[in-house]
């Protein structure tokens, strides 16, 4: 038995499967901002997308209120060849491709949470998730919007904004441009 173990170890070293002084990289836990979480029901879709298309990335938890996800992955395995400063970009590219553009990964908020202002805008006429996605994208892409949600179930769009960069009027104009009907407050 000892001889079999020794032979296996020697063959593994010879084949380069183990390096004498090298340990496999351990997965890292990282928090990223997640785009596309316009509805709390999207978490299950995000988990399924990761499981099917990015199996080396585990979703540990979601902070839906701040649109942040805690992920566990070994960057060298999940994003081979990527430089550390390019990990978020590579993760975003892979997730966008896997989700047909409905999810993305971004760096964390640039404005501290306590400085953000919450805006709720009533909407009417949205009757499907695709409509919710369109309303979400109209608002989420505006400069100064750190996080957004859109729920056709609740009849509202919610955004966390940097009040120095945008305001309620700009959000409403973006929604009207996408032909989203605003409700009364």
Radius of gyration over alpha carbons?
A: 22 Å
Strand % is: 25-35%
Q: Indicate the mean pLDDT.
A: 83
Series of H and E elements? HEHEEHHEEHEEHE
Number of strands: 8
What is the terminal-to-terminal distance? 77 Å
What does this structure look like?
The longest helix is centred in the first third of the chain and has 14 residues, at 2-15. Strands 2-3-1-4 form a four-stranded antiparallel β-sheet. A four-stranded antiparallel β-sheet has the order 6-7-5-8. The model is unreliable at 1-22 (pLDDT under 50). The protein is built from six helices and eight strands, in the order αβαββααββαββαβ. The chain has two domains: 28-106, 2-Layer Sandwich (Alpha-Beta Plaits), CATH 3.30.70; 113-182, 2-Layer Sandwich (Alpha-Beta Plaits). The protein is α+β, with helices and mostly antiparallel strands. Helices cover 35% and strands 25% of the residues.
What structural keywords apply?
35% helix; Alpha-Beta Plaits; four-stranded antiparallel β-sheet; 185 residues; 2 domains; disordered N terminus; alpha+beta; 25% strand
């Amino acid at each position: 038995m000892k001889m079999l173990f020794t032979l296996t170890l020697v063959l593994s070293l010879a084949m380069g499967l183990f390096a004498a002084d090298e340990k496999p990289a351990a997965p890292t836990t990282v928090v990223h901002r997640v785009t596309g979480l316009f509805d709390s029901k999207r978490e299950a879709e995000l988990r399924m997308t990761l499981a099917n298309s990015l199996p080396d990335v585990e979703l540990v938890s979601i902070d839906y209120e701040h649109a942040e996800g805690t992920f566990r992955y070994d960057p060298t395995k999940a994003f081979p060849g990527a430089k550390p400063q390019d990990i978020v970009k590579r993760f975003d590219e892979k997730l966008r491709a896997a989700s047909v553009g409905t999810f993305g990964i971004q760096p964390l908020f640039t404005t501290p949470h306590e400085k953000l202002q919450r805006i709720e805008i009533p909407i009417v006429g949205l009757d499907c998730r695709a409509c919710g996605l369109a309303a979400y994208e109209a608002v989420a892409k505006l400069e100064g919007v750190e996080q957004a949600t859109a729920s056709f179930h609740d009849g509202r769009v919610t955004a966390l904004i940097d009040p120095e960069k945008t305001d309620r009027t700009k959000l409403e104009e973006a929604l009207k441009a996408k032909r989203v009907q605003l409700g009364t407050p």
